[in-house]
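Exercise (ungraded).
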Amino acid sequence: MALLQISEPGMSTAPHEHRLAAGIDLGTTNSLVASVRSGTAEVLEDENGQALLPSVVRYLENGDVIVGQQAKAAQLDDIENTIASVKRLMGRGISDLKTLGGNLPYTFAEGDMAVPQIKTVAGNVTAIEVSAEILKALKERAEKALGGELKGVVITVPAYFDDAQRQATKDAARLANLNVFRLLNEPTAAAVAYGLDQKEDLDERIIAVYDLGGGTFDISILKLNKGVFEVMATGGDSALGGDDFDHVIAEWILQQSGSQQSHHALAEARRVKEALSDNEQVDVQLEDWQGSISRNDFNQMVEPLVKKTLLACRRALRDAGLNKNQVHDVVMVGGSTRMPVVREKVGDFFGKPPLVDIDPDKVVAIGAALQADVLAGNKPDEEMLLLDVIPLSLGLETYGGLVEKVIARNTTIPITRAQEFTTFKDNQTAMTIHLLQGERETVEENRSLAKFSLKGIPPMVAGAARIKVTFKVDADGLLTVEAEEQTTGVKAGVEVKPSYGLTDNEIEGMIRESMENAQADMEARKLREQKVEADRTLEALDSAMAADADKILSPDEVATLQKAAAQLQHIKESSDNADEVKAAIKNMEKAAEFYVARRMDDNVKTAMAGHNVSDFSDTTE
Amino acid sequence: MAITLTDVAADRVKTFLENRGKGVGLRLGVKTHGCSGMAYVMEFADEIDENDTVFEDHGIKIIVDPKSLVYLDGTEMDFAKEDLSEGFKFNNPNESGACGCGESFTV
């Protein structure tokens, strides 16, 4: 028997058609899944009341796969077949292993392959497959808790993840049979969890997200403008985290006690660190040594580590071109931000108290769940978040080197737009689709993204073919373009990543140029359009003369027409004035008037040839 | 008769309303839908219509439209946890049969 949840006004679904959605924080050390129930986002717990699922996967000889706490517990006994921190390998190639490999405890399979494969007793596995196992476990947990199949999920990724790493994450989701509504940057998810995107007090917010986890530190500077998040800068240290704080305390314990039991000292250090978050003074014990540590002592010992994180914050701010007074909100993420000394120093640095109300281990998953709920369609439309826009217009080349914009800049994604194009020449059977990005009017001034050909257009007169070109940009900014000839259904298409390799500065430069050159661009477009018109006129004259010049024109008349055509051709090629080209077209049309008239007469004659006058007068008699 | 909430259900509704940050109460109703006739509707309410009947239990306003009231009068709303799942359920004396899914019923 299903248990019911409270919906937003007017958003109730029919029975068995619940739009179940979840947010997944697929972490390096731990993963979580959260969902919105009765309007409240909560992290979903397992049978033992545990919210955190250790991101550890163990492969057994019989092919069984164990995920989570049990796998983590076996890590030391079966290190070869127990895979942890696989997130570090996502989207990496063989060549990346040299820089990463040293820190990873698994054995990689040898041989020629596209992505690194880890050797286990159950066969070789890729990072994508290992991640898929973690996602499957979270999917199962969510579907049990929500009482139905998930319609889709939002998965978070670090803001600095590149295309390959994002694609690998999506591939893992597909392997786990999950529909991904979208990938969401982790810092953005944290800001969403605090509802910063719903606040209307400022036109533009600057948000710093300080994420200190077990083994990594990330700082992200976000700009939120009219519901759209933009990552302005990221920074951090992939080898600095809560574990380093433990090591500092463990060293102190070893020094004080004179013991060599580093393993035990580390466990005691962790306990002491956590206890000091709630107590001013904590007793410390290692074997028969006993001591005590105050929060002040602790703070002094770890100060260099905290300072290191603040240096990274300073750098990220500088990269974003901001000073710390311009930051409106500071969001704390990661279990290590529970330490009072971290909260205090971060607060001092930014000059405002950081946001700490939501459990820092869960905040990213909660933000993802809120976003998934919206994308599943459980909220009224006006609460729909706009998370991304297209930075530059997307379009294609049309005849004459002009650019036809299909999707305008600042359009929110995902988006699909279709436009119809036609052939320029008689019997044209192929068409090249040249995709361009930018704000200018001519092809040369824009950025070329890709070219593909649509072949197999049936022979027709110019302008009769109907070719529908569809531009589709998904939530992750991936552009797919498809061209289809409507009468025959022949299709061709291509997929590109438009913003690939473009920096913010380059985008800004391209937009600025288009504004500065607006007038010149318009003139250029007018000129090109007239030149296209000239071509069309010449083309029409050519095909007409090829058909009947020898029948109805005298050699002199042919020469006159050829001369007029040559003149137009010359002006078309040499002129940079649209009006001049336009006048030349007019002149040629005038010169050809007698020919057009004669062709018409001739056509009528041909149509009547062989008929008797009475054939045409039957009806009137 | 009236529509009532168990202590647990009232506690949860209160929390959900607070988390939402707005709304006057809880709207209950029925829709003709589902695998056996009627389906329950449970939504946050932002406004009360003049034809609505409003019950108050545990300090929570329960708002019902006149058409739904005949199907719901006497219902007690409960909140339950079953394995990993949790949510509301209806103990409705008007219900003569249900499809077993808990979401739809016949009178």
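Further reading is listed at the end of the chapter. For now, observe: Residues 4-99 of chain B form a domain with the Hypothetical Protein Aq_1857; Chain: A; fold (CATH 2.60.300.12). The mean pLDDT of chain B is 84.
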